[in-house]
């Protein structure tokens, strides 16, 4: 990653051969201000005034706040390179953790194109933050999943009335996995209806598969975990007990 940044910084040394200094300054300022307004000030309406029509803002699949933005000129005409950094307590502000590197084309003081050079976002940071918050509130550790049935590109969720919900998605296929966790001391067998099946996981925990609703339940330390899969664009795809067992057997304590 340092090599990528070094290359961009080195390229700024040759920019004066391509563009007048005033034009370079305006391009860098407009590009940097747009990113600051959009991500740090969270003013999406104002940020869009920097954009030409039909310009798509790339997604950043991590909810960690961005706290620093640096703009650089580029050897390409009308282009600025913007490097943004996540607010990460584990890394010093001086070095920072790079959120993204974008190349923004600015023409007539409007951004006409945004190209992603590097995406440093990690959607599983969202999972970690939600899990840590739930564990802090509930005073108990929970199991987290390591097998998701598809490549995860987005993670979000919420905590509501002592219930944690985690949503994992693939944005290309729209496949999704939902895992919910809540306190419940009711015996797993009490949830069993006709045609439901009880399984024993590799870690010895009991699990209940409800084929009618394609729902999979497991219980540990008075916590009930609910697992649900959806196939996205493959709407007719159905999931079997084996699909859920693979996910449930991957769950462990961090």
Give short descriptive properties of this protein.
single chain; 254 residues; alpha+beta; elongated
Overall description:
With about 250 residues, the protein is α+β, with helices and mostly antiparallel strands. Helix content is about 25%, strand content about 30%. The protein is built from five helices and eleven strands; from the N terminus they run H-H-H-E-E-E-E-H-E-E-E-E-E-E-E-H. It has a seven-stranded antiparallel sheet, covered by helices on one side. A four-stranded antiparallel sheet has the order 1-2-3-4, with helices on both faces. The protein starts with a helix and ends in a 5-residue tail after the last helix. About 5% of the residues have low confidence.
Which runs of at least 5 residues are low in confidence (pLDDT < 50)? 7-18
Instruction: Give the termini distance in whole angstroms.
Output: 27 Å
Gyration radius over CA: 23 Å
Helix coverage percent of residues? 10-25%
Side by side, the strands of the main sheet go 5-6-7-11-10-9-8
Tell me the strand percentage band. 25-35%
Mean pLDDT: 87
Order of helices and strands: HHHEEEEHEEEEEEEH
Instruction: Give the class from helix and strand content and strand pairing.
Output: alpha+beta
Any idea what the shape is? elongated
In DSSP terms, counting alpha (H) and pi (I) runs of 4 or more, how many helices? 5
The total beta strand count reads 11
The biggest sheet, with number of strands, parallel, antiparallel or mixed sense and barrel status, is: 7 strands, antiparallel
């Amino acid at each position: 990653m340092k090599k990528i940044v070094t290359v961009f910084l080195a390229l700024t040394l040759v920019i004066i051969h391509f563009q007048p200094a005033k034009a370079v300054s305006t391009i860098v300022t407009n590009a940097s201000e747009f990113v600051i307004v959009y991500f740090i000030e969270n003013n999406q309406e104002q940020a869009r005034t920097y954009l030409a029509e039909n310009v798509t803002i790339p997604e950043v699949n991590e909810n960690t706040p961005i706290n620093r933005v640096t703009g650089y000129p580029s050897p390409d005409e009308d282009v600025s390179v913007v490097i943004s950094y996540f607010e990460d307590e584990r890394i010093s502000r001086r070095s920072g953790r790079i959120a993204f590197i974008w190349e923004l084309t600015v023409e007539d003081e409007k951004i006409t194109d945004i190209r992603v050079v590097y995406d440093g976002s990690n959607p599983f940071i969202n999972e970690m933050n939600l899990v840590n918050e739930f564990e802090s509130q509930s005073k108990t550790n929970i199991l987290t999943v390591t097998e998701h049935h598809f490549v995860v590109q987005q993670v979000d969720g919420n905590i509501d009335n002592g219930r944690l919900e985690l949503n994992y998605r693939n944005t290309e296929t729209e496949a999704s996995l939902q895992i919910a966790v809540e306190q419940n001391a009711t015996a797993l067998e009490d949830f069993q209806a006709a045609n439901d099946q009880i399984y024993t996981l590799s870690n010895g925990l009991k699990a209940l598969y409800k084929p009618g609703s394609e729902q999979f339940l497991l219980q540990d330390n008075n916590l009930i975990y609910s697992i649900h899969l959806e196939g996205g664009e493959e709407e007719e795809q159905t999931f079997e007990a084996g699909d859920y067992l693979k996910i449930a057997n991957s769950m462990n304590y961090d």
